[in-house]
Design goal:
This protein is α/β, with parallel strands linked by helices. 46% of the residues lie in helices and 10% in strands. The strands form two sheets. A seven-stranded parallel β-sheet has the order 1-4-5-6-7-8-9. A two-stranded antiparallel ribbon has the order 2-3.
């Protein structure tokens, strides 16, 4: 029998049900801005591909234990949900695309030809191919013991395609797109059929992957379109939206799905995805978006992650106040415009959560 969740604020907010307060969590909350995470990584001295399972190395019980321990780190600062510690590239390994981290993700042979796309294996048995992820999720549910909900996630097909075709992260350090992403745009222009074939394979994998996470205990899932900020509207309509729609249409209907599209201003297209929650960036006016969408979906966001890194406590308090007031109490999950920067002071992270939980809209 499904264990009752004591703090189900996020689960209710995702369905636009009444909540006592606006729930809060952060993308990249279990990671590099946390000094305890950095200490664990230093002591472990393991490559990220072991912890993220982007490599074919044998699975060790200790790897699962460390992934669980890291996932649970943000619990001590009072967030309203835990997200599984893994990488969006994790499910590409059983397809035959093994990324190593040096320090960023590197694929020895970028996927750019018909034969390479054809050679990618389907994810048709995630219970075997992604047993590590299943073990981490089951262990997290056991450790949480119904205290907080667990968030699963996946990279959206186009974002994964950018990594596969570039052979590394397509994003520059800081902001913008790397020169390494040029072949992706060339494929959009010169070989769109090949790109669609790749996206088809990645979409089927993502559907199986997310439903597998749900079957193992994830209670809400998020799809990351992390390259949305470099897409024209036509690119988004052609290469992102149709695959979002397929994924959300085929997810377990009992589980809410969040669409995160980094700094994407095409909120009407995001809405057409079928996601229950739209996670928006700082480029979107939250109050206006909620009014235009008219309560049919929930929203997540959208405190500027730069403010958490660079701002004072007063700046963060004001940003939280504005966001909560714009989002309203129903159908809003407080989060950032994107993930935490690695150099965000941890005191600022704790202050953000504390203010989010104690602020009362007068």
């Amino acid at each position: 029998m499904e264990r009752q969740v004591k703090n189900d604020l996020i689960l209710r907010a995702a369905k636009c049900l009444p909540v006592e307060r606006v729930p809060v969590w952060m993308m990249r909350q279990a990671g590099r801005s946390d000094p305890l995470y950095r200490q664990i990584r230093q002591e472990l001295n393991l490559p990220l591909e072991r912890l993220f399972r982007t490599c074919p190395a044998p699975m060790l019980d200790t790897d699962v234990e460390w992934a669980v321990k890291i996932s649970l780190l943000p619990k001590r600062i009072g967030v309203d949900a835990i997200i599984v510690y893994k990488d969006i590239l994790t499910p590409l390994a059983p397809m035959g695309a093994h990324f190593r981290f040096s320090p960023g993700p590197i694929l020895s042979e970028p996927i750019r030809t018909q034969s390479q796309v054809d050679a990618l294996c389907p994810l048709d048995d995630p219970y075997v191919q992604l047993e590590y992820t299943g073990q981490v999720i089951r262990s997290l549910r056991e450790k949480l013991n119904g205290e907080l909900p667990l968030i699963g996630f996946a990279g959206a097909p186009l974002t994964l395609a950018f990594f596969l075709i570039a052979g590394e992260s397509p994003m520059k350090r800081g902001a913008g797109i790397s020169e390494k992403a040029k072949p992706v745009f060339e494929m959009m222009e010169d070989a769109p059929e090949l790109l669609h074939q790749l996206l088809d394979k990645l979409t089927e994998m993502t559907i199986n992957y997310l439903n597998y996470q749900i079957s193992q205990g994830a209670q809400i899932v998020q799809l990351f379109e992390s390259i949305a900020d470099v897409l024209s509207q036509q690119m988004y309509e052609d290469f992102a939206l149709p695959y979002h729609q397929r994924i959300f249409a085929e997810l377990n209907s009992d589980t809410s799905g969040i669409l995160f599209a980094k700094e994407c201003s095409y909120v009407n297209l995001m809405h057409q995805s079928g996601a229950d929650v739209l996670s928006i960036g700082k480029c979107v006016d939250l109050e206006k978006a909620k009014t235009e969408i008219d309560g049919s979906v929930a929203f997540q966001g959208n405190v500027d992650n730069d403010i958490l890194r660079d701002g004072t406590f007063s700046d963060i308090t004001e940003a939280v106040r504005i966001c909560i007031e714009q989002g309203g109490k129903t159908g809003h999950i407080l989060n950032l415009s994107h993930g935490l920067h690695r150099d965000t002071p941890f005191e600022n992270v704790k202050h953000f959560v504390n203010i989010a939980k104690t602020y009362q809209d007068s």
